[in-house]
Design a protein that fits this description.
3-stranded antiparallel β-sheet, single chain, alpha+beta, about 130 residues, 9 strands
């Protein structure tokens, strides 16, 4: 998580910035002339710091404030909820396919085929024209 949660701290005035671009703007505006344009990438690298684990941070999904150390498991919970939400719901159907679960859509299509007999997904079964003589 420390590779993703970074901050940029100015070495002269201890001002914190969340993005490299913001720090670059700060350095150019407030510390102009202390370094050349070619030195700027090196200075920015020197300002790059990990955010302290005890620092309070907001969850981007629900807005709850918590320490960075708790945020990882909190976000994992949200991601699991999202993953479970997009999975199709299941219907227990012991006879349908040997006791395994079948999705609602598959169970509905199967019952329609069983009810209609000769139609599958709204289409009639193909007719073998060679054997029917048509």
């Amino acid at each position: 998580m420390q590779m993703h949660r970074r901050q940029f701290v100015c070495g002269d005035c201890n001002e914190n910035h969340l993005t490299r671009d913001s720090m670059e703007t700060h350095l150019k505006a407030h510390h102009h002339g202390l370094f050349s344009e070619s030195q700027l990438p090196i200075v920015l690298d020197m300002c790059d710091r990990p955010i302290d684990d005890s620092e309070q941070s907001l969850c981007i999904l629900c807005g709850e404030e918590m320490s960075l150390s708790k945020l990882q498991s909190h976000l994992a919970m949200h991601l699991e909820d999202i993953a479970l939400f997009v999975l199709p719901s299941s219907v227990e159907d012991g006879e349908a396919d040997g006791g395994s679960k079948m999705t609602n859509q598959a169970a509905k299509l199967k019952s329609e085929v069983e009810r209609d007999g000769d139609e599958l997904y709204g289409f009639s079964k193909a007719v073998n024209y060679e054997t029917t003589g048509i």
